[in-house]
Amino acid sequence: MARHRKPILWFAAALLLLPCFGPARAEPARLDTIRDIFAKLRSCWKPPPASRANLIDITVVVSFNREGAIIGHPKITHESEHATDNDRLIYRVAVMEALQRCTPLPFTEALGGAVAGRPIAFPFKSPRKLPPKPTEHRAWLTPKIL
């Protein structure tokens, strides 16, 4: 009877150790700096294809709580001046999709405490060259007389 117990003990010990050697569960890398936040958001950014919208730059202001979830509503504060209404709409949707893909952000406790409730402006840049800015004409400036 004692001989039958040894294989059972080995089997029980193997079952106890199985979770230690099972598939590794990668915990998301914790964000510890503002630079980490920008890199994470940049990794989630998927600009619309050029066939759907002209290339524009857009900036969103967003606040997070200590756990990395968005507080309130993100606010668009800048869009390229040459953007059409269609471009603006498509890029706004792309920005909101990027925020949904990334949040909640995995803040460390220190970073969560530092950024909680504070607005962060994040620029989403187009990956290709934008058209040149139009020349500004200032009617209030007097021409130089030589």
Protein architecture, described:
By secondary structure, this protein is α+β, with helices and mostly antiparallel strands. The protein has a domain of 98 residues: Fusion Protein Consisting Of Minor Coat Protein, Glycine Rich Linker, Tola, And A His Tag, Chain: A, Domain 2. It is built from 4 helices and 3 strands. A 3-stranded antiparallel sheet has the order 2-1-3. Strand 1 and strand 2 form a beta hairpin.
Radius of gyration: 26 Å
Indicate the proportion of strand residues: 15-25%
Q: End-to-end span in angstroms? A: 115 Å
* CATH topology type of the domain at 27-124: Fusion Protein Consisting Of Minor Coat Protein, Glycine Rich Linker, Tola, And A His Tag, Chain: A, Domain 2
| Low-confidence spans | 9-24
Helix segment tally = 4
Query: Which structural class should the secondary elements be placed in?
Result: alpha+beta
Element pattern in H and E: HHEEHHE
Just name the CATH architecture of the domain at 27-124. Answer: 2-Layer Sandwich
**The level-1 CATH class of the domain at 27-124:** Alpha Beta
Summarize the biggest pleated sheet.
Answer: 3 strands, antiparallel
Global shape: globular
Q: How many distinct beta strands?
A: 3
Helix content: 25-40%
Q: Strand order within the widest sheet? A: 2-1-3
Average pLDDT metric: 79
